[in-house]
């Protein structure tokens, strides 16, 4: 799997921050499309757990540990094959941190001043009338896109499948790679491209807004059946009576159903909407479909979480393989910059 800089296959790389229990939005919007790309023989896939990124959002050690295992178990339960995919934990690859510093040293501060998460934090302070507009903003939050750039550049990634909110970060990584190449007159670092799937970029949550743990509107991916049903029943619908014909286009239940059911099942539900369907029945249909599809993966997920040593072994092997490649690029880069 050694490709540093002379690979024939394109490299697809993405990471997930372990800062919450995986939800349906993470699955449909990020993990499922990434795993589909990994099956494509034109790509080599690198999927990792961005645990250093979680330090910025989460300061609870026990929860972090739990989320790291949950994200790892999720990737594996959904079909990631660690024999074919480079699967590792960011903090197991210290080379990323070294690269991070080298990249930091050529990056204009202004580039990160314009990053949207930082700007949003400043704007929120201003809106709240804070005297210090930087109040509560850590250097971690400010440097977040920097570390992402190191994650991506470390493995010569060509394509980075991400949600819409992350596109700017990939553009920042591109700028940084090009800048270092320019400064040190080399062509060592690959400039990555973001890949966003229009169909799955915004999976709606319980209240119809984007499903996100920040909005507290998620449906947990591997909640036990009973809990899954409870969550599905909480989806906000309008106050139309059961017999009234219903619009499928603005309906969260229908939007979610489309991602789980096949074409003819989707058509059949659309017809029921046309004829008039009670919201309870629509939600029950969605729940049953989701439960049926998720059940085998949920069993695998529960098994892995009950047997964490299996996850540990996969991650240790993945780290070992990934470090070999990371070291190669870092050695070349250090040589190039005169170290
Ligand atoms: P959250 O918004 O719940 O904090 P994250 O930011 O941790 O989720 O997202 C992890 C991955 O899942 C990212 O690639 C993100 O784009 C994707 N993702 C999260 N929520 C959704 C959603 N509702 N629709 C599509 N993709 C999503
Ligand atoms: N910032 C991403 C998120 O919150 C996670 C992430 C970290 C990532 N490093 C990355 C994604 C590198 C793609 C590539 O979703």
From TrEMBL:
One of its GO terms (biological process) is tryptophanyl-tRNA aminoacylation. Pfam families: tRNA-synt_1b (PF00579). It is an enzyme of class 6 (ligase). The keyword Cell inner membrane does not apply. Keywords: Aminoacyl-tRNA synthetase, ATP-binding, Cytoplasm, Ligase, Nucleotide-binding, Protein biosynthesis. GO terms for molecular function: ATP binding; tryptophan-tRNA ligase activity. One of its GO terms (cellular component) is cytosol. CDD domains: TrpRS_core. It catalyses: tRNA(Trp) + L-tryptophan + ATP = L-tryptophyl-tRNA(Trp) + AMP + diphosphate + H(+). PROSITE patterns: AA_TRNA_LIGASE_I. Its EC number is 6.1.1.2. The keyword Aminoacyl-tRNA synthetase applies. Gene3D superfamilies: HUPs, Tyrosyl-Transfer RNA Synthetase. Belongs to the class-I aminoacyl-tRNA synthetase family. This is Tryptophan--tRNA ligase. It comes from Cysteiniphilum litorale.
């Amino acid at each position: 799997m050694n490709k540093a800089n002379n690979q024939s296959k394109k490299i697809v790389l993405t990471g997930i921050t372990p800062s919450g229990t995986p939800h349906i939005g993470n699955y449909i919007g990020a993990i499922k499309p990434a795993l589909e790309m990994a099956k494509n023989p034109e790509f080599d896939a690198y999927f990792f757990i961005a645990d250093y990124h979680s330090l910025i959002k989460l300061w609870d050690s026990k929860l972090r540990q739990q989320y790291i295992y949950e994200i790892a178990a999720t990737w594996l339960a959904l079909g990631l094959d660690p024999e074919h995919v480079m699967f590792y934990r960011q903090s197991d690859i210290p080379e990323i941190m070294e690269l991070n510093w080298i990249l930091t040293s050529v990056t204009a501060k202004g580039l990160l001043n314009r990053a949207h998460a930082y700007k949003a934090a400043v704007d929120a302070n201003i809106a709240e009338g804070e005297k210090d507009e930087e109040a509560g903003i850590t250097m971690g939050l400010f440097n977040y896109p920097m570390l992402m750039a190191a994650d991506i550049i470390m493995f010569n990634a060509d394509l980075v499948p991400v949600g819409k909110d992350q596109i700017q970060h990939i553009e920042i990584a591109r700028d940084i790679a090009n800048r270092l190449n320019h400064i040190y007159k080399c062509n060592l670092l690959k400039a990555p491209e973001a890949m966003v799937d229009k169909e799955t970029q915004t999976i709606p949550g319980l209240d119809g807004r984007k499903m996100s743990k920040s909005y507290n509107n998620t449906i947990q991916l591997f909640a036990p059946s009973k809990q899954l049903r409870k969550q599905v029943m909480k989806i906000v619908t309008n106050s139309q009576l059961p017999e009234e014909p219903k619009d499928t286009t603005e309906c969260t239940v229908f939007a979610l159903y489309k991602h789980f059911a096949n074409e003819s099942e989707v058509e059949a539900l659309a017809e029921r909407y046309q004829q008039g369907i009670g919201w309870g029945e629509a939600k029950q249909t969605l729940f049953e479909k989701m439960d049926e599809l998720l059940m085998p993966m949920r069993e695998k997920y529960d098994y892995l979480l009950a047997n964490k040593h299996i996850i540990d072994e996969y991650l240790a092997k993945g780290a070992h393989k990934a470090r070999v490649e990371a070291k190669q690029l870092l050695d070349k880069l250090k040589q190039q910059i005169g170290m």
